[in-house]
Amino acid sequence: MTQQLSAIINGRYRLVRQIGSGGMGVVYEALDRLTNTRVALKRVRQSAGDLETRKVGMTFNSQRLNFNLAREFQLLSSLRHPNIISVLDYGFDNDGAASQNPLYYTMELLSDSRTIVEAARPLGVPERIALLMGLFEALAYLHRRGILHCDLKPENVLVGRDGVVKVVDFGLSSLREQFIPAETGNAQIAGTLEYMAPEVLQGLPASEYSDIYAAGLITYAVLTG
């Protein structure tokens, strides 16, 4: 579902329409008035009540949301891979006060993108496997750098008009060493319920295997429809 808009963000980006949402924010198609190009702009949600109810196990408030979006930008800006979304710019709405104005960042706009499951439906098995290879290569790249995605699902694995797979929405991602065993009482339990690995649901720390479990569910959906 899309929403028509006309707000100006930070004097530069004119919101055109809402094109999606994730655990930490809402994504819009926006016009960069400086370069006269279309970009995707993600901004933090205004209230915890707007968050997806399927997200579980995290305390959401404006400070935490701003922190997570800032982390997401820093994480994405360090990544260079053809199957991972590229970020372009970052800032605060209006006066830059983090406590009052949500963070935003811009990224490449995926024109007419579909989830990997939707894109696979009209394809044969070899083409479906080619799409999955894009996902696996992105995941291997992340894991080699000690980064866990923690929210892999079809909605976060998109295929653009050019047929290239892009992994998106790193709002729940973390470096591997930041996950704490459940015995301390401080383990992070986060993700989308349908794609969370059993050990994460049990309160154990996430690992590469947790991402692989979610990728396995995506693979099943891609291959079987």
Give the structural class.
alpha+beta
Pattern of helices and strands: EEEEEHEEEHHEEEEHH
Biggest sheet statistics: 7 strands, antiparallel
The N- to C-terminal Cα distance equals 22 Å
Task: Write structural notes for this entry.
The chain has 225 residues and is α+β, with helices and mostly antiparallel strands. It is 28% helix and 23% strand. It is built from five helices and twelve strands. Strands 1, 2, 3, 4, 5, 6 and 7 form a seven-stranded antiparallel sheet that branches. The protein has a three-stranded antiparallel sheet with strand order 8-10-11. It has a two-stranded antiparallel sheet with strand order 9-12. The radius of gyration is 17 Å and the shape is globular. The two termini are 22 Å apart. Residues 47-60, 95-99 and 177-187 have low confidence and may be disordered.
Characteristics:
single chain, 225 residues, alpha+beta, 7-stranded antiparallel sheet, 3-stranded antiparallel sheet, 28% helix, 23% strand
Helix and strand layout, with pairings?
Elements: E1 3-4, E2 8-9, E3 13-21, E4 25-32, E5 37-44, H1 62-77, E6 87-92, E7 103-107, E8 114-115, H2 116-120, H3 125-144, E9 147-148, E10 157-159, E11 165-167, E12 174-175, H4 198-201, H5 208-224
Antiparallel strand pairs: 1-3, 2-3, 3-4, 4-5, 5-7, 6-7, 8-10, 9-12, 10-11
What would you say about this model in short?
This protein has five helices and twelve strands.
